[in-house]
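call fold(seq) -> tokens
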Amino acid sequence: MAGIKLENVSKYYGRKMAIDNLSFSCKEGEFFSILGPTGAGKTTILKMIAGIESITSGSIYFNDIKVNELQPHARNVSMAFETYNLYSHFNVYDNIAFPLRAPKWKLKLTKAEEKEKVTEIAKFLGIDVLLDRKPQHLSGGQKQRVALARALVRKPEIYLLDEPIAHLDAKLKFSTQTLLREFAIEYGSTILYVTHDYKEALALSDRMMILRHGKIEQIGTPEEIYYSPETDFAGRLVGEPPMNIIDGELIKDNKNTIFKVGDSFSYRLNKELASKAEKVSEKKGGKNSARMGIRCEDIKISKEKISENSFKLPIYAVVHEAESSIISFELKNTFMHSRISSGNKFKISENIWVDFDPERIFFYEKTMEISKF
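ret:
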């Protein structure tokens, strides 16, 4: 296995920038996910590491070896794409075995050795009963697992997985995530995993990177990304409902700093929060505006007053889920959501007390637009 390091890597397609001066590392044996929306540059990064795409500038290293000039076959990586790319004239067994037979890898396995490897990974992914079938006789989910098996069957230095389970149904996706995590631990594999599904990234990763417009938004453990998002974009990308992003005005009242959101509510900030809000605030038209972020589970609601900082809002909507309920409040330019345990009976239009956990409030520079819908 090998670690991966990118130093000041940029990629342009003509005048269009796809990757902008990117630097990060994936340790040997680490499961490292790249999370971002469509067009962020996730797949481009994998293709540059694999050697399928050239880089415009910068350097890529496997351990301490610079691989910029190495051809794809000399990089000893295995890649699985979102598209299956299966050979229709081969059965499942031959599709999985194809990398083991490729002359460029010079494995020279016996038939028995090849069968052992193919059967092992097929059983691991639950497709061993499909080995005699042709791709045209498989479901989309089965094809995706075959493509994944083909990528995993050889033991390269690095696995590059590009949304490899995107087309699986919810049940299969969950079981395959578990298998991927088991595979990474059992074989000590270095895995660079691309996804637009934050749940996959949180469940699978040792560390993860949030990518936006070819730039790094944040790198950290799943816990760091979820509980301490560094930007409004990172906060909104991870979580369902996404982090509440609320724009308001900072007002001085004697020695207190108040975060005022139009006619909806006012919230007194402690000294630490006031300092954080001031650092990222914007002064426009005689007003000092700031952007607050808070996760839905960190907003408390009650029929009784919670603290001296509590305020009242009418309930806009109530959505019941299996083990919790989402209570929504309409603000001027957005909605605010609170997640509470099931069993609490709140009604639409009911005026209730709302409070924030001050330890879980963030303030951000404004880097994106928010809307009600």
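The CA atoms of residues 97 and 114 lie 7 Å apart.
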